[in-house]
Amino acid sequence: MSSLAAFGSKTVARGVGRFTDLVLEKGSGAYITTDTGRQMMDFTSGIGVTNLGHCHPKVTKAAQDQCATIVHAQVNIGFNKPQLELMQKLQPLMPHKSLDTFFFWNSGAEAVEASIKLARQATGKQNIIVVQGSYHGRTFGTMAMTKSKTVYGEGFGPLMPGVFTTPYPYWHQVGVPASTSQDELVKQALYQLDLLLKQQTAPRDTAALIIEPVLGEGGYIPAPKGYLEGLRKICDDNGILLIIDEVQTGFGRTGKYFAIEHYPTVRPDIMVIAKGIANGFPLSGIVSRKELMDLQKPGSMGGTYAGNAVSCAAAVAVQEVFEEEKILDNVAARGEELFGLLHELKADKEIGNTIAEVRGLGLMVGIEFNSPTDPYTPSASGAKIPANMASRVQNKCLEQDMLTLTTSVYQCIRFIPPLNITAEEMKKGCDIIRKAITDVVREG
User: Fold this and answer.
1) What pLDDT score was predicted for residue 372?
2) Distance (Å, rounded) from C-alpha 213 to C-alpha 244?
3) How high is the pLDDT of residue 371?
4) Which of 190, 215, 403, 444 has its CA 20 to 30 A from that of 238?
5) Residues 242 and 232: beta-carbon distance below 8 Å
6) C-alpha to C-alpha distance for 419 and 421, rounded to whole angstroms
7) Same domain, 373 and 438
8) CA neighbor of 276 nearest in space, from 216, 352, 366
């Protein structure tokens, strides 16, 4: 541990959990360099934030130029030019033409809270439905809505009232074997939602249902098409708004500009955006139709740093890079390579019995390992399953100078490389992953 890291371990609040005590000093593309000169391949992208890699030159220059023009142009005083330019860039990219009105804030959690404020204001109703395994933030409002791990809200109650939870069509959460068909999972999950509306929160009291199209902290699980279509119908039938949380899935991460585009018949009433929008600069927002947004009184939304001019300038550059560098084409190619490796490992006679599932979309990729204590994971035909596979694989990757992250309360590890990662870099990353998993299996 460096002297600076030792200082940090004594002075940074203990509530800020860390996977390592590395001091991340410099970033360039798919790599981070520490204060001791150690270079690390970054398959976390700052938890899905630096989608164009660290310090993309065009994004960096846009922010530098804006710093020399105006840094703080407070949104409750007037417009700032980059903010309006960003809206012009984003409007044509929206997954539905009704999403035409924007409000920009700073963080994903704030944007989620903005979506709840809008839903309650527009409907005159209070209650919110979330799905089991969801993650929406760590503010007081969003802690109540986060259902991926108890650590995010433990000891902070009472939390925001009026939040109800419905199961997600994931075999763990429905409590059935992993071999259960997707159609059956969808059927059971939608049935439980119907019961929730009959037994716990009546439609007349329910403002919105919020969901991530790919469950993030819950394990990188894409929503089945039939499930999201079912949610849209239930919301339409009951006067409930459907909020799509694209904080982690948006801006190319799943191979589409927004993950909801994988479900073309599902229209969001409100969409939440953040993370990859500005490649590391703090920026988030909500998008909805003007008739809903205009129900809020002037002054009811805002914030000191909301829609910061430097962040918005960076975000404008991000959207331009996506088009100029054909980022989505690269996501398709590199995602195929990463999924190819993981499916190959799952089919391997030595390794495959440790892997329960490979899943995700684009370059939002998860792998769940079997657990020797979990009755719902697939049978390993009597083979011994190593314990704590996810954290052990993560540590093996770290030993080979690659940063990765675990996720969920199950044995899951997620891979979130930059969307512009090269074929050569992806091969290097795949080689590290292969060795890490193989080493853990052989050590038992």
Assistant:
1) 84
2) 7
3) 87
4) 215
5) yes
6) 6
7) yes
8) 216
